[in-house]
Structures are given as C-alpha cells and as structure tokens.
Fold:
Amino acid sequence: MFAPLEDVPFTGSEQQCFLLGYRSIAWEVYAKRRAVTNGDYRSVLSGAKGAMAKAAMDAFNHMTQLGLRDAEAHKAKYDAVLEAERWTDCHGLLIEFTKTFPIQCAAAWSPTNDINGDELQDLGTTPRTPATATIGSFAANGKSYFLLSWLKDSSVVASKIADSIVALPCNKVAGVIAALLVQTSENCHFAPGWYESLSDAGKRWLEAQGNPFIPTPPPSKMAISAYFPDIGVARTHRF
Structure:
C-alpha cells in the first residue's frame, strides 16, 4: 500500500500526500480504539475517587467514543479514495524546510480554531461528523517537510488553517508549526540532541504545549523562533 511513498523518492505527488494523510487517519483510529477499550477501566478507577471524579471520567469516555465515531467515518472516506485512486480528492499544504526540523508527528484531528485562535467549527455532540484534517512532519530525501492535508469535504474548515500558515512570516513558520503539532497530538517525537539543547525555559515551553489540562494560547501566540534557529521555508506547495 505504501510502496509509492516508501520505495521511491519523495516528490510531493498527490498520491504520496494522500498516503501520508491516510497513515495519519489510520493511526488516529487505532489510538482512539485503544482509548475506548480502556474506558471501563478508567471509569472504575475514577469511581474510587468520588462521584464528581466518576462523572468527569464518564464525560471524557463519552467524548472519546464520539471521537472514535468521527475518526472511523473519515477513515471510510479515505478508504474509498484509496480504492478508487482518486488522489485529486486530497488537498493540502506542503512545506519544505531549509534545515532539519526537530519534531516528527503524524496525526489527525477536527480543528476548532486556526493557528491564530479564530474559530473554525463547533464540534458539539451532534450526529454530524465534523471536518477533519491531518498533520505530518517527516524527513525524506535528506530534507524535512510539514504536510497539512484534508479531503475535499473538509475544505471549508481545513483550508483556512492552510491560509493562516501561509500568511506567516517565513521566520515564524517553524515555531508556529511546532506549537501546532504538540498542541494537537501526543504522537510527536523530538530529536534528542535538539531537546537536550533546550534551556529549562524551552523545555517548560514544550511541556506546556502538550499539557491538555493547561489552557494554552493559539500556536501563533506561542511560537518562539529562538528554539528553531535558522529553520526557514525552502518551498511551499498548495494542492
């Protein structure tokens, strides 16, 4: 399935970008299935801490189930595109960095805001399936890339995130994308040398982005370019 992505040089073709998005969707379904499976266990443990704790955990478990429902609905759409080889149904923003970007990630999510905090959609708890996008940060051919992608039925929401990233000054892109990745997903991997070189303040900054229990300003407000020195944008491609 992934031979066109892994066995040939990366060129940023529509098929390759779709496969990167597909892999992110598949990972998200797997992660949410695992979370739902552990729901009863979490509920029992929280019950020992009182009624309020159990109610909060039950609400969390319900939201996790809704998240799985949405992820599986989008996975079915990606399956249909894959089977029909309709690569043009996939749209996105591909960025090539000038230097090695130290965070790699693959994830999918239903964005409620763009990088500036402007509202994009209200998830609510209705049967409606929200718009979904995928994000990926990866290395290929000795270069570093960031990919934001989506299927055409999510374009109204996801394209606005791409617009907000493209509007950034080039020297802020790396820092904003780093904040976006860590705020969005726990499936992030840091280059050890880069992480160890961060100051204590830098490590606290990184931890704050990934803490779901701490209200965090939007990525454009949290970007600190000093943590990503000299990483600029070599090429930007919208498709």
User: Anything to note?
Assistant: The mean pLDDT is 92. The chain is about 50% helix and 15% strand.
